[in-house]
Amino acid sequence: MKELIIATRASDLALWQAYHIQDRIEATFPDIKVKINKIVSNGDKILDKPLALIGGKGHFTKELEDAILAGEAHLAVHSLKDVPTYIPNGLELVAITKRQDQRDVFLSHKYKSLKALPKGAVVGTTSLRRRMQIAKIRPDLILKDLRGNVNTRLRKLAEGQYDAIILAYIGLKRLDLLKDIPFTKKLKLHKMIPPMGQAALGIEIVTNNDKVREIAMTLNDSDTFLCTKMERDFISKIGAGCSAPVACNATIDEDVINLEAMIGYPDGTNIMYKTLTALISHCDELGSRLADDFILDGAIEILEKAESIAFKDEMPQRI
Q1: CATH 3.30.160.40 domain locations along the chain
Q2: Which residues are catalytic?
């Protein structure tokens, strides 16, 4: 194999990720030339509506998957948090890169921290997961939708449309966008539990290409693969879509894997939080088992209600 083509979204962060994978592959396989196929996903085209209202995470992956199946690329690089738990027939999520800093970060031009915000301050985030957890901590704040690419969101903050916004730290770090913001503070993981797969990259290939599989597997981190599998199993079993506030995170401590999850309403009420642990040698069903615990305590009803009230003012526009 002399040439390998990577399919990627065309956003600044997606391109950083694709070039990072390109460098890693070329370093490991110096005889292979790696090219980038930039694809504008549907999720990148519709920037005026929350993700939950345009069909969910698949809008960031479908065009890339179509390109692989059509032979226009050999593999796709995804932000793993954007990859649905269902993978189309003929494709496989074969490798997950080592997870980086998963934390969300508080950003403001006026205030030092979430705690320092005055009552009634406006915080920008469209993430239902963040809304749930912020409202639980600070029910006195006003939460306002925040759409657009990263640069657009930071511009809106600088213009004073928001007193603060909350974003994923790792993307801002990779693009070197933190230096011009006066106040930044990472939120502790137990205060703001991340979404499934945050801060890891997923490598998707056509199932029957053994050479591409060999190349992709050099990118895989076994601990991250295991943790994110538990997270994805939980999300799949509980049936949580983009219209439900859900947070989940798996970590490894020596020979034990810990999985925590939270669901609730976007306004921070009806919160359900649970944890489950298992030895790594016996953790195959950990994600499904935790989902079963949630379901037994009424999680499905909570998620259905959460979906019915999420973005209720915008639901009539839903296609």
Answers
A1: 222-319
A2: 82
